[in-house]
UniProtKB/TrEMBL annotation:
This is Reverse transcriptase domain-containing protein. Residues 1-55 form the Reverse transcriptase domain. It comes from Sesamum radiatum. Transmembrane segments: none annotated. PROSITE patterns: RT_POL (PS50878). It comes from the Eukaryota.
Amino acid sequence: MEVYVEDMLVKSNESRNHVEDLEETFVVIRKYRLKLNPEKCAFGVKGRHFLGFMVTQRDIEGNPAKIKAILDMGPPTNIDELQRLTGRMAALSRFISKFAEKGLPFFKTLRKVKDFEWSEECQQAFGEVKAYLAKLPLLVKSIPGDTLYLYISSTSQAVSSVLVREEDGAQTTIYYVSKVLNVAECRYPSIEKMALALVITIRKLRLYFLSYPVGVKTNTPQKQVLRKLEASGRLVKCAIELSEYDISYLPRTTIKAQALADFISE
């Protein structure tokens, strides 16, 4: 069972166990004198909108209404409209590979509050975002007993990661994470940017890292660098924070999914 403030989701691995799982849930509800709104309840369904996403037996889909809201937008003509665009994109960021890089022209423009200009770079990025959203990839749920894998990527102005699971040699995406770097972070050496990407991902996806062993697939000697005595203060802090989790470092192999194709290089 998962509870998020006033939303509750009861999941069963087998349909024949679902009634029993619901009975246990109702016992707890009665014990604490909680009340349910019948109009907002659904039982025995294989898919349902939950926390803004469509959750099914196998996949998690982006909210079609949120996707359509962006696809129907025209080019922003002022800061308010651009903020509306980036806000709508942020609501779908877990589905968007390298979200920070795709939206970088927009974020740069937002910094120019007094001098709004919709540049050719913004228009190109806008078209690319719409094309991506029109074929937004599905995400999958992790399964107890999984070992998850993380790919990380950094550029001069952004860091990104993707958490995946593997089954029968095929990789499927669980979650995308991305961040635009501030001025100070842009000056970090590449190895420190990669460490930052890892820390940002763990903070965002802490429950995954607490619940599953995770293999970080990277071409950089991340493990050795984090353990060096002469490592920078930032890397030492990263190493201390990462020590809480069951993380291993693995050489990057070929990514086995078309949806992850833009994570082919660091």
